Amino acid sequence: MKSTHSSNHQVIFFPQEVQTLFPGQPSLYRISYQDWTNGYQQIMHCHADITEILLLLAGSGHYSIGAQRYPIRAGDVILCNGGVVHDEFPKTHETYQTICLGIKGLQLPDLPPNHIIAHNKTPIFHHPAQFDDLSALLQIILRQADQQAPLYLHICQQLMLSVLKLTEQMIREYGTENSSQQNELCAQVEAYIYTHYQQDLTIEQLGKLFFVSPYHLAHVFKQHTGYTLKQYILRRRIGEAQDRLSCSSDSITQIAREVGFEDSAYFSRIFTKYVGMSPKFYREYRTKSDE
Q1: Which of 66, 72, 162, 197 is an S-S bond match for 236, by CB 3.0 to 4.6 Å?
Q2: pLDDT, tens digit, 9 for 90 and up, residues 63-84
Q3: 3-state class of 291 per DSSP?
Q4: Which domain-ending residue is among 144, 174, 204?
Q5: What pTM value is reported for the model?
Q6: What single string gives the DSSP state of each residue in 5-59?
């Protein structure tokens, strides 16, 4: 397992290590504490096979999940299914701290793999008692994982299963519907962009594809996601580039081209604008953080 020591602290569990000990159970993949107060964040991205339970310990802002943008505040529990694009916007000049649990191999009854909540349910919860219970368990997991005392994997695994049950209980007690015709349109457009973000998409093309006027689509998309189409695609490309810079040895030019930028100099300018550092510096930063 890996550990990152600083105000941003992440512990990664290697799946084969956990699966060997606990076959047939969901796998604890990572636990992380993040402090974004001084900048830097992961731009729009998704994890195909990782379910996330995130607690906002301090701060406020907005969080985008799929085609919907939500206001968030300290004390919120944010649930993100695997394979769903998500993005966050901390309020500037304000302390912003999170703790997040990543789980692999989750299969709950009546839900797709790696889903913890139905797609038509609101994934943001604000209930102090449940938040306090979840926060306490996640803090213990983080401490146990960091110290790696005897039996820590067994303790972390059991605590993760308890977190899942408490989260399921919270959804059953407080889950609310989050569906509308406009939301469904945005979800369809978002799903299309998910697999075509490298292409030069226009609002006119998408309007024809989904049988709505470009004006109506532009209005609804901005209303529900908080982005214009151009902003959304740029953030999606930059988020994918962040992942590839962190996890591959491909050249910056190759990564730029694969995420939809033909001009690597333009890619570097846009990346720096959104992330706050150049692609080269970002790769070096992430490499040092993971050592």
Answers
A1: 197
A2: 999 888 899 999 999 999 999 9
A3: coil
A4: 174
A5: 0.84
A6: -SSSEEEE--HHHHHHHSTTSPEEEEEEEEE-TTS----SB--TTEEEEEEEEE-
